[in-house]
């Protein structure tokens, strides 16, 4: 059992919310890609509500933007963990970082694909 896992109930939920906010602040302060995706969502989410699309289409348009934020958080976490272990170049470290980047590329492609299918449709 981890010594960091001691809280239960409401205290655990409040701690988890605080850690989540800390993570969002760290990502926003330290990751340009995360800030760019936030800006993209600031544009796309209102646009999805302005466009004449069905509620399901609107939900998909918003969801893919938020998914890209989630993927960027995971990508940044992988990069931070790899850098914490060692700043030396290693093929496995490169693979881990490249795979995180590939995941983000796919999530951005998904935004373009979903929006194109709905708008051109």
UniProtKB/TrEMBL annotation:
<dbReference type="GO" id="GO:0006654">
    <property type="term" value="P:phosphatidic acid biosynthetic process"/>
</dbReference>
<feature type="binding site">
    <location>
        <position position="12"/>
    </location>
    <ligand>
        <name>substrate</name>
    </ligand>
</feature>
<feature type="binding site">
    <location>
        <position position="31"/>
    </location>
    <ligand>
        <name>a divalent metal cation</name>
    </ligand>
</feature>
<feature type="transmembrane region" description="Helical">
    <location>
        <begin position="102"/>
        <end position="120"/>
    </location>
</feature>
<keyword id="KW-0472">Membrane</keyword>
<keyword id="KW-0808">Transferase</keyword>
<keyword id="KW-0460">Magnesium</keyword>
<keyword id="KW-0594">Phospholipid biosynthesis</keyword>
<feature type="active site" description="Proton acceptor">
    <location>
        <position position="72"/>
    </location>
</feature>
<feature type="binding site">
    <location>
        <position position="72"/>
    </location>
    <ligand>
        <name>substrate</name>
    </ligand>
</feature>
<dbReference type="InterPro" id="IPR000829">
    <property type="entry name" value="DAGK"/>
</dbReference>
<feature type="binding site">
    <location>
        <position position="58"/>
    </location>
    <ligand>
        <name>substrate</name>
    </ligand>
</feature>
<feature type="binding site">
    <location>
        <position position="79"/>
    </location>
    <ligand>
        <name>a divalent metal cation</name>
    </ligand>
</feature>
<comment type="function">
    <text>Catalyzes the ATP-dependent phosphorylation of sn-l,2-diacylglycerol (DAG) to phosphatidic acid. Involved in the recycling of diacylglycerol produced as a by-product during membrane-derived oligosaccharide (MDO) biosynthesis.</text>
</comment>
<keyword id="KW-1208">Phospholipid metabolism</keyword>
<feature type="binding site">
    <location>
        <position position="19"/>
    </location>
    <ligand>
        <name>ATP</name>
    </ligand>
</feature>
<feature type="transmembrane region" description="Helical">
    <location>
        <begin position="60"/>
        <end position="82"/>
    </location>
</feature>
<dbReference type="InterPro" id="IPR033718">
    <property type="entry name" value="DAGK_prok"/>
</dbReference>
<feature type="binding site">
    <location>
        <position position="31"/>
    </location>
    <ligand>
        <name>ATP</name>
    </ligand>
</feature>
<dbReference type="Pfam" id="PF01219">
    <property type="entry name" value="DAGK_prokar"/>
</dbReference>
<dbReference type="GO" id="GO:0005524">
    <property type="term" value="F:ATP binding"/>
</dbReference>
<keyword id="KW-0997">Cell inner membrane</keyword>
<feature type="binding site">
    <location>
        <begin position="97"/>
        <end position="98"/>
    </location>
    <ligand>
        <name>ATP</name>
    </ligand>
</feature>
<dbReference type="GO" id="GO:0005886">
    <property type="term" value="C:plasma membrane"/>
</dbReference>
<keyword id="KW-1003">Cell membrane</keyword>
<keyword id="KW-0547">Nucleotide-binding</keyword>
<feature type="transmembrane region" description="Helical">
    <location>
        <begin position="33"/>
        <end position="53"/>
    </location>
</feature>
<feature type="binding site">
    <location>
        <begin position="50"/>
        <end position="53"/>
    </location>
    <ligand>
        <name>substrate</name>
    </ligand>
</feature>
<feature type="binding site">
    <location>
        <position position="12"/>
    </location>
    <ligand>
        <name>ATP</name>
    </ligand>
</feature>
<feature type="binding site">
    <location>
        <position position="101"/>
    </location>
    <ligand>
        <name>substrate</name>
    </ligand>
</feature>
<keyword id="KW-1133">Transmembrane helix</keyword>
<keyword id="KW-0479">Metal-binding</keyword>
<keyword id="KW-0444">Lipid biosynthesis</keyword>
<feature type="binding site">
    <location>
        <position position="79"/>
    </location>
    <ligand>
        <name>ATP</name>
    </ligand>
</feature>
<keyword id="KW-0067">ATP-binding</keyword>
<dbReference type="InterPro" id="IPR036945">
    <property type="entry name" value="DAGK_sf"/>
</dbReference>
<keyword id="KW-0443">Lipid metabolism</keyword>
<comment type="similarity">
    <text>Belongs to the bacterial diacylglycerol kinase family.</text>
</comment>
<dbReference type="GO" id="GO:0004143">
    <property type="term" value="F:ATP-dependent diacylglycerol kinase activity"/>
</dbReference>
<keyword id="KW-0812">Transmembrane</keyword>
<dbReference type="GO" id="GO:0046872">
    <property type="term" value="F:metal ion binding"/>
</dbReference>
<keyword id="KW-0418">Kinase</keyword>
């Amino acid at each position: 059992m981890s010594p960091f896992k001691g809280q239960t109930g409401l205290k655990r939920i409040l701690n988890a919310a605080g850690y989540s906010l800390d993570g969002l602040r760290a990502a926003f302060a330290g990751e340009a890609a995360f800030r760019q995706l936030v800006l993209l969502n600031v544009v796309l989410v209102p646009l999805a509500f302005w466009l004449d699309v069905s509620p399901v289409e609107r939900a998909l348009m918003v969801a893919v933007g938020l998914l890209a934020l989630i993927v960027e958080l995971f990508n940044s976490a992988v990069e931070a963990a790899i850098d914490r272990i060692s700043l030396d170049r290693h093929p496995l470290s490169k693979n881990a970082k490249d795979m995180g980047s590939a995941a983000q590329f796919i999530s951005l492609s998904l935004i373009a694909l979903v929006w194109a299918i709905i708008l051109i449709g």
